[in-house]
Amino acid sequence: xxxQQLLELAIEHIEAAVRYVHSNSGxxxxxxxxxxxxxxxxxxxxxxxxxxxxxxxxxPAKASDITPAMLASIFDLDxxxxxxxxxxxxxxxxxxxIASVWGDYAMVAKVATTNDIREPCVARTFHWGExxxxxxxxxxQYREEAIHSDIYEVxxxxxxVVMYTECAHLIGGI
Length: 174
Known about the structure:
The chain has about 170 residues and is α+β, with helices and mostly antiparallel strands. The protein contains four helices and ten strands. α3 packs across α4 (about 70-75).
């Protein structure tokens, strides 16, 4: 029951974050970003299921029927992005402890939907392709006989730049 109450509280936090981003930036956010574990948690929430049915976004019989698009619909956002990055959070020499890069956080944000740099958004990824770099990485392989090995070089020249912090709000403890 406590988990259910926390999830219902998370729903209220998401709506509050949407309003907060709008009041700070004048822009309505279009995305909820959360890790896969929190996404799976939201799919278990009775209130989420009831909202999906009431909004006409679908009628899920089980948690796996709930899609990111359904969640976006009930939160009145264009998209729900599921972050899949995990890391080993154990200290060196200790047993592996897998944790999400996002932890117990979610973000409501205005994300870019076009390649136009003038479009206001929280951040952008810039790619530099002058040296043969490609989006997703360019792999070059060659043999180095001096060390009896094949060498693989990956060229992926990108940089992430935060543009407008006002276009996002981080929600903790969900």
